[in-house]
Amino acid sequence: AQSVTQLDSHVSVSEGTPVLLRCNYSSSYSPSLFWYVQHPNKGLQLLLKYTSAATLVKGINGFEAEFKKSETSFHLTKPSAHMSDAAEYFCVVRSGGGADGLTFGKGTHLIIQP
Amino acid sequence: DARVTQTPRHKVTEMGQEVTMRCQPILGHNTVFWYRQTMMQGLELLAYFRNRAPLDDSGMPKDRFSAEMPDATLATLKIQPSEPRDSAVYFCASGLLGILNTEAFFGQGTRLTVV
Hints:
The complex is a heterodimer.
Chain A: E1 2-6, E2 10-14, E3 19-21, E4 23-27, E5 32-38, E6 44-50, E7 56-58, E8 64-68, E9 73-78, E10 87-94, E11 103-104, E12 108-113
Parallel strand pairs in A: 2-12
Antiparallel strand pairs in A: 1-4, 3-9, 5-6, 5-10, 7-8, 8-9, 10-11, 10-12
Chain B: E1 5-7, E2 10-13, E3 19-24, E4 31-38, E5 42-50, E6 53-56, E7 65-71, E8 74-79, E9 88-95, E10 105-106, E11 110-114
Parallel strand pairs in B: 2-11
Antiparallel strand pairs in B: 1-3, 3-8, 4-5, 4-9, 5-6, 7-8, 9-10, 9-11
């Protein structure tokens, strides 16, 4: 079984300040982990992914995430927020062991204050 | 620029009518997913296929929903009869999984409204 918990339903930051979106997961096998972003009325776009290589993963638009097995976490960060980062962010887990279905967290709505 | 294509983008239908949503996965991808997104439940996996064979449809209400892949370039999700509670955005995604575990690439979704 696998699950994802996004600890904050909403996060509000000022433009130019750091962003932290938190994610914890559980998985029976070595997981693959992803962050997707969804802008209003749009589909889902991959930001970055972890698939058992380097634990610090860099993605698009300046985002990165660190896989911490001991903490079962995969938090998403960005040093400096931009207005265009305002969107819904989803943490996603896929367990190994032949289970391919992606399990999504409930999402974190990121608000950028001018 | 390879992408997953879903049609229609929007659908409004009356309760009791049949609805068919279509998805063209990225050429060469062996796995196709159907997800449903609602405000209350978030993103839920309905079904997925590997090499056109259904692997898991446990998330799908069996009495009214059906998912098929008639060929490698087309996946369909059908609701018959539709109900207002089916109103949601339905996403199709494809990926190359198994040997090369890529991420899933999502389509733009079909926004279904059942009145």
